[in-house]
Design a protein that fits this description.
The protein has about 260 residues and is of the alpha/beta class. It has helices at about 20, 25-30, 35-50, 55-70, 75-90, 95-105, 120-130, 155-170, 185-190, 200-210, 235-255; strands spanning about 5, 110-115, 130-140, 145-150, 175-180, 195-200, 215. Strands 4-3-2-1-5-6-7 form a seven-stranded mixed beta sheet. β2 (about 110-115), α7 and β3 (about 130-140) form a beta-alpha-beta unit.
Length: about 260
């Protein structure tokens, strides 16, 4: 039976929150103020130190929803594309890249399942060679974010998404793998036959020990461009070459459309 490996993104594949990692590029692009950058930095510190239980994730959701309300969707995507390597490259765990390569070599599809927004997760997924991305979708009206959430990839919904994909593609979940750092992803981990806790928060570590799940420690951030698999060179070429080729034109046009900082 075909199978898949499901990866959380933040603190599992990369060493921090993917959404908050782009706060400074968003400030440089005129989308947020210096005060908002400082609030993002504080939120990220709390996330790293305290983990991501339900209350923390709810606060993060509210903060991000309020922050992006009114932003131009195209501008956000352009900034992410232009700064992707600068922001993400130093944050990717070498151990995670190795696991992704091993699962592909074993014939398994790789799925990133993240609570962060698709605008950030999908480009990172392409860069890593993921086959599928499941991520939160923000509500859009007339090309701008409303501050609402159209689809929230969180908690039990991650497990539901895994079950839907398995039914569509014929995967045997008992033969599938899953990796996450957060107690909020217990439903996803419990849905597969091979769950793994990666750099787990205190509550997930306790749950993993109680259930006999392997606990992995990822500690080696690596420059992703040095680790892109030779079998997937077009991903790196698209990510780097595309940004270089159109970066200047996109940045100029984007700045004309961006609102003044708050």
């Amino acid at each position: 039976m075909p199978a898949a490996a499901f990866f959380d993104l933040d603190k599992t594949i990369i060493a921090r929150s993917s959404a908050l990692a782009f706060s400074r590029p968003f400030q440089a692009g005129g989308l947020i103020s210096r005060r908002a950058v400082l609030r993002s930095a504080y939120a990220h510190f709390v996330y790293l130190v305290g983990g991501a239980d339900h209350d923390q994730m709810e606060k993060m959701r509210q903060f991000m929803s309020q922050l992006v309300a009114g932003w131009d969707v195209a501008t956000v995507r352009e900034i992410v594309a232009e700064t992707l390597h600068t922001v993400v490259d130093p944050l990717v765990y070498d151990e995670a890249v190795t696991l992704i390569e091993e699962h592909h070599a074993a014939g398994r599809e790789v799925v990133i399942v993240s609570t962060s927004g698709t605008e950030v997760v999908e480009p990172i997924g392409r860069l890593l060679g993921a086959d599928t991305v499941v991520a939160t979708r923000l509500e859009e009206v007339d090309g701008r974010y409303t501050g609402g959430i159209a689809y929230y990839a969180y908690g039990e919904e991650k497990a539901a998404a895994a079950r839907r994909l398995a039914a569509e593609r014929g995967w045997d979940l008992a033969e599938c793998y899953a990796y996450s750092d957060s107690i909020t992803d217990v439903p996803l981990l419990a849905a597969v036959g091979h769950p793994h806790a990666v750099n787990p928060d205190r509550d997930l570590r306790r749950a993993a020990v109680a259930r006999g799940w392997p606990v992995l420690t990822f500690a080696k951030p690596v420059a992703l461009r040095s680790r892109i698999s030779p079998a997937r060179p077009t991903l790196a070429a698209l990510a780097v070459g595309g940004a270089v080729a159109v970066g200047g034109l996109v940045w100029a046009s984007a700045r004309r459309r961006r609102p003044e900082p708050a």
